[in-house]
Amino acid sequence: MKIGKETIIEAFLQLLHEKSFEELSVKEIIQKAGFSRSTFYLHFADKYELMEDVRRKLNGRFLSFYEKDFNEWGKPMTLHLCEHIFTFRSFYEYEFADTNAIQKLSNKLAAHLLLIFDDKDYAIFASYGTTGYLTFWVKDGFIMSPAEAAEKLLKIGLTNWTNRIGYEI
Asked: What is the largest CA-CA distance in the chain?
């Protein structure tokens, strides 16, 4: 059986498919969750705190895909990442409409990649490229499947750009 907080979060994410965050009320969230207002306020001060909790959890999951050895996943890490975004598309449609949220996530990803690759320039380029690509995928309404988006993202990440544009380093 799910606890109240998990059910409230699920109801919130379902409602984000139907309405914008700004239009949502606590009353609608608790009605969808089937809980009382006091149960909501036991876990969250308001809908903004709820959004921050969801953001922390989902962005944390997003970043966690970069913490494991690629061989541990059994399939490309980019596929796990795109499946995650597609599963929580209502959140990422909201999140990727906000340039500040995109920048914050890109900065967090750059910090993660810096720890992995120990190359600040690569970390910045890869993080902003990844979040930029994913943002366009989301804003285009997921016209590609998660598998197609993941394959293209992986291909871009593995491309030797010096050969493609005629430069030699």
From this structure: 65
With respect to CATH, is domain 1-44 assigned 3.40.930.10?
no
What does pTM read for this prediction?
Answer: 0.85
Instruction: Report yes or no: 13 and 54 within 8 Å, Cβ to Cβ.
Output: yes
- For 70-120, write each residue's pLDDT tens digit: 445 567 788 999 999 999 999 999 999 999 999 999 999 999 989 888 899
User: Following DSSP, what letter does each residue of 20-65 receive, concatenated?
Assistant: -TTT--HHHHHHHHT--HHHHHHH-SSHHHHHHHHHHHHHHHHHHT
Per-residue pLDDT tens over the stretch 55-81: 999 999 998 888 765 445 567 788 999
From the options 1.10.357.10, 3.40.50.300, 1.10.600.10, 2.60.120.200, give the CATH code of 54-160.
Answer: 1.10.357.10
Query: Per-residue b/e over 92-125, b at no fewer than 16 CB within 10 Å?
Result: bbbbbeeeebbeebbebbbebbbeeeeeeeebbe
d(C-alpha 114, C-alpha 79), whole Å: 22
